[in-house]
Amino acid sequence: MFTPEAYSSGQQYPLVMALAFNSVDDSRFWKQALSANVIVAVLQSSQPYARDMYSWDDLGRSQKDVAYVFSELCSNFPIHKQKVILTGFSQGAALAIYLALSKSPSCLGFIGICPAPTITPSRAGEYASFLKANSARGLKGWILSGEKDSFLPTIKNYCDSLIQNGSDCKLIVEPNLGHEYPPNLSARLVEGVHHTLA
């Protein structure tokens, strides 16, 4: 949990909820969004699959965990509930997009950094169908994918589906980047936050 430098409990702040990736301590990446004057919360999955390794594979459990943390944050911090952004990297990004479309929790939009093509690998077809079938009207989206990311063609299709379903979704393709965090993540995150809050 990170608050802006000039944090005041008497002021409401947008919330960026980041869904941590695998075993990586994502905090150092996501707290770079603080320069956009937002509160940043980094959530680690409660689903271990190996020593010090976690996933978001159980979608139902993931939804409950995120909803619980969101409720706790809103009870303890001055969160502007109409300015909530879900974000993540890889599987975390895929989950952020899913939750934003599900309105669970209700949010303004999402930022996806190199999204995976699905949340649960064995159910990729269901994820694609979900994106195509659900209204995204009023939902802001900002997706960054690497030019060398093998998932890029799928992510382009997903972005097209979101736009067709009413989302203001912007896709950024980062040159020479694979399935990894971009070296200019701080600037990109702030760009994504500004697009989503605009």
Q: What does this entry look like structurally?
A:
The relative contact order is 0.15. The chain has 6 helices and 8 strands; from the N terminus they run E-H-E-E-E-H-E-H-E-H-E-H-E-H. It has 198 residues and is of the alpha/beta class. The strands form 2 sheets. A 6-stranded parallel beta sheet has the order 2-1-5-6-7-8, sandwiched between helices. The protein is globular, with a radius of gyration of 15 Å. Helix 3 (91-102) links the parallel strand 5 (79-90) and strand 6. The chain has one domain: Alpha/Beta hydrolase fold, catalytic domain (Rossmann fold, 3-Layer(aba) Sandwich), CATH 3.40.50.1820. The model has no long low-confidence stretch (mean pLDDT 90).
TL;DR of this structure?
The chain has 198 residues and is an alpha/beta fold. It has helices at residues 27-30, 59-76, 91-102, 124-133, 152-164, 185-197; strands at 13-19, 39-43, 47-50, 53-55, 79-90, 109-115, 140-146, 168-174. It is 35% helix and 26% strand.
Q: What topology, given as strand order, has the largest sheet?
A: 2-1-5-6-7-8
Please provide the ordered H/E string of secondary-structure elements.
EHEEEHEHEHEHEH
> What class would the helix/strand composition place it in?
alpha/beta
Number of helical stretches of at least 4 residues: 6
The CATH H-level superfamily is Alpha/Beta hydrolase fold, catalytic domain
The tally of strands reads 8
Helix content: 25-40%
CATH architect. name: 3-Layer(aba) Sandwich
**Basic shape:** globular
The protein's oligomeric status is single chain
List the helices and strands and how they pair.
Layout: E1 13-19, H1 27-30, E2 39-43, E3 47-50, E4 53-55, H2 59-76, E5 79-90, H3 91-102, E6 109-115, H4 124-133, E7 140-146, H5 152-164, E8 168-174, H6 185-197
Parallel strand pairs: 1-2, 1-5, 5-6, 6-7, 7-8
Antiparallel strand pairs: 3-4
